[in-house]
Design goal:
Layout lengths: L8 H8 L20 E9 L2 E9 L6 E5 L11 H4 L8 E6 L4 H6 L10 H19 L4 E7 H12 L4 E9 L3 H18 L3 H10 L8 H17 L17 H19 L23 E6 L7 H10 L5 E6 L8 H19 L2
Parallel strand pairs: 3-4, 3-5, 5-6, 6-7, 7-8
Antiparallel strand pairs: 1-2, 2-4
Helix pairs in contact: 4-5, 6-7, 6-8
Length: about 350
């Protein structure tokens, strides 16, 4: 394992200061645009060691910073399988967020420590600034999915100058709208299918909002059931973790991180990070290009709700892609749509 060079003490102090601090200048990793890069390791970000991986065939290629979902579902164990081939054209950066994956394994939050969207937004901005400095890039492409689409919008709104564009997949809009919409649509599908057991269980839950954190997970199981009937499954090898992440300890840490982050997201009484999500309240003007990619059968983050939000947005460029035979979780059709947006919409912007 090759560790990323640690930030200097001065840089670490500056990063911990939040959005308005700039990291100390340091030489770029890239001696030439043609130099390949493959690194993984911990970097001090806002006071804790956070796990970052960087993979690319050439330092001169554009950089994509992925903001994973969950919030505890780190993408780094699966990135090589899912995005195989992309590294020939882009430098791919995976970041295990505070409370997720290898970052959680290194520094488990103590009891009573809570996560906030604002704190994780500041982490993401610091990661973007570090990567730009580390690779000698002026900006990166920001790509967020599901929970990552919440964090991605917060990052894009806070520091649009750091990003070429924002690409939101399975875009969340508003906690109550998305949660209520999911409940309503799953109930309608169950009723249309004469699925009495599901209808009965949903009726027993009652419509959101809820105070019991288990209810969202119960609804999500039914949501996946009905999405599965209308979508194509992803290749099975996508979700087999790479060997480094498949040791018993790594798998146990990943499960613990997922549990911790879920409770932070939902909250013990339904008052976690998700309850406060209202992206339109941040303002609908974006000072960077914005692209949404939505699965047509997505029940958790309704494409209709995302479309209404998208239509309200003003941005230098924007586009909305609806993907057939796709739901909330990624499959090959979603990946193909992401690639098309990168090729046809984002790549031309990089030449300006």
């Amino acid at each position: 394992m090759t560790l990323l060079p640690r930030l200097t003490l001065l840089a670490a102090l500056l990063l911990s200061a939040g959005l308005h601090a700039e990291p100390a200048a340091s030489p770029s990793l890239c001696a030439s645009p043609a130099q390949p890069v493959r690194e993984q390791g911990y970097v001090s970000i806002n006071g804790i060691e956070q796990w970052i991986t960087v993979t690319g065939a050439a330092c001169g290629n554009p950089v994509i910073l992925f903001i994973h979902g969950g919030p505890g579902n780190a993408l780094s164990p699966f990135a090589d399988a899912i995005y195989a081939g992309w590294e020939r054209h882009y430098t791919l950066v995976q970041w295990d967020q505070r409370g997720a994956g290898m970052t959680y394994a290194k520094q488990r939050p103590t009891e009573g420590v809570t996560l906030t969207v604002e704190q994780m937004r500041d982490d993401g901005v610091a990661v973007a600034r570090y990567i730009e400095q580390h690779l000698g890039q002026r900006k990166v492409i920001l790509m967020g999915s599901s929970w990552g689409s919440i964090l991605g919008v917060h990052m894009a709104k806070a520091r649009p100058d750091l990003f070429h564009a924002y690409i939101g997949t399975a875009q969340v809009v508003n906690a109550r709208e998305n949660e209520t919409g999911m409940y309503r649509e799953v109930m309608a599908l169950a009723q249309a299918a004469n699925d009495a057991p599901t209808v009965d269980k949903l009726t027993a839950l009652g419509a959101p909002p809820w105070r019991d954190p288990r209810n969202f997970g119960i609804l999500r199981r039914f949501d996946r059931k009905y999405e599965g009937l209308a979508t194509d499954a992803p290749p099975k090898h996508w979700w087999q973790p790479a060997p480094f992440y498949a040791t018993p300890q790594a798998l146990a840490d990943a499960e613990a991180a997922d549990d911790y982050s879920y409770l932070q997201f939902i909250g013990l009484r339904g008052a976690g990070m998700f309850a406060k999500v209202d992206l339109p309240a941040l303002g609908t003007r974006f000072d960077l290009p914005v692209f949404f990619i939505m699965g047509e059968a997505d029940l958790l983050t309704s494409p209709a709700i995302a479309r209404t939000y998208f239509d309200s947005i003003t941005a230098p460029a924007k586009d909305f892609t609806l993907v057939k035979r796709a739901g909330h979780d990624p499959n090959q059709a979603v990946l193909d749509a992401q690639w098309t947006v990168l090729r046809d919409k984002v790549a031309p912007l990089l030449k300006r």
